[in-house]
Amino acid sequence: MVDVLVIGGGPVGLFMAALLLQEGVTVRVLEQRTGAEPHSRAIGIHPPSLDALQGIGLAPDLVAEGVQIRRGLALAGGRTLAEMSFAGVSDSFPFVLALPQARTAALLEQRVRHLDPAALQRGVRVTHVDDDGGRVTVDATLGGAPVRYTAAVAVAADGVRSAVRTQSGIPVRARDYPDSYLMGDFADSTGFGPDAALFLEPAGIVESFPLPGNLRRWVVRLPEPGTAGAARDAGWLVGRIRERTGIDVDPAGNSMLSRFEVRSRLVRRMVAGRTVLVGDAAHEISPIGGQGMNLGWLDAAALAPVVLDWLRGAPPVAALRDFEARRMAAAARAARQSEINMALGRPLPGLRWQVRCRAIAAAGAVPAVNGFAARRFTMQ
């Protein structure tokens, strides 16, 4: 028996484990994948997350490898509508850090293994979770053989298709959106440097973010629902970038291509007995705005002190209730922000597009509005 079982060994589960391990808690992280996930979906680490990651001593390593995005540009029709500086959003980290998720996860795994080489167990497929009120028992398979784990507390960080959430019978509020996107990483020849660029064009938004290694991620809104399946080619993506922005991107420099559709899933509760859901298991938020992974980290940072108190005595009912209320409210705010971001990037006919451009330019020229928007975009 260990103190805490963390089910799911992605960035959120690994961070949760590191927070507890450094406090002397015995932890086992159960991860179904036998190897690290090579694909990098999330790339943005927001200032509050960097503050939280500083708590396990990892922020300096992340910052050393990532690109510091200190400014965002809103462009349309070949001109700059507004500039958004992140200088005032944080005293410690006045930027959004761009770093591929795979590298972030690798650094987190290194930290966990440094704290306890046996903490992370890969190839574990959870089949059943039982909470008898005094402890949590997890039945699983490892290499095809049955195995059982027990702990005082379980933290489910097992993603959007959370088996723990399903087995616990926790209801979910679900919403699907008509928006689809295609994204790809390419060699950067734009001259934007460390700036993020959002092209708010009549045919739909094009987003562009810097990455380490002189790469740039491009995200293009697909023209209509149902076209995502046919638009998996780097050449198609490069063509839409050129068509909407006038920028030529070399398809030969493509190193990643992925499409996604947008939906949100918010649980009705995060705490079920001695099991707590965090990250995508509790709230799946649209990738637009890059909030999902960051929300999970902030869940873990808020939960860790509650778990420490829990292990010292009876379940801290009031603290768990407060944790749940605060983190569910944060997820709801993130979902609303995602909807705003999507609305700004949807296609618009000529006159309405011009009105939107003028409104964005006017708002960006007001320092108070600009600062408020910068804080919202960086999850402050």
Tell me what you see in this structure.
The chain is α+β, with helices and mostly antiparallel strands and 380 residues long. 36% of the residues lie in helices and 31% in strands. It contains ten helices and 19 strands. The chain has helices at residues 11-21, 47-54, 59-65, 101-115, 163-168, 234-245, 292-312, 317-345, 350-364, 367-377; strands at 2-7, 27-31, 44-45, 67-69, 71-76, 79-85, 96-98, 120-122, 124-131, 136-142, 145-156, 172-187, 196-201, 204-211, 215-221, 256-267, 271-272, 275-277, 283-284. Strands 1, 2, 8, 9, 10, 11, 17 and 18 form an eight-stranded mixed beta sheet that branches. Strands 6-5-13-14-15-12-16-19 form an eight-stranded mixed beta sheet, with helices on both faces. Helix 1 (11-21) packs parallel to helix 7. The chain starts with a strand and ends with a helix. The model has no long low-confidence stretch (mean pLDDT 93).
How would you summarize the topology of this molecule?
Elements: E1 2-7, H1 11-21, E2 27-31, E3 44-45, H2 47-54, H3 59-65, E4 67-69, E5 71-76, E6 79-85, E7 96-98, H4 101-115, E8 120-122, E9 124-131, E10 136-142, E11 145-156, H5 163-168, E12 172-187, E13 196-201, E14 204-211, E15 215-221, H6 234-245, E16 256-267, E17 271-272, E18 275-277, E19 283-284, H7 292-312, H8 317-345, H9 350-364, H10 367-377
Helix pairs in contact: 1-4, 1-7, 2-7, 7-8
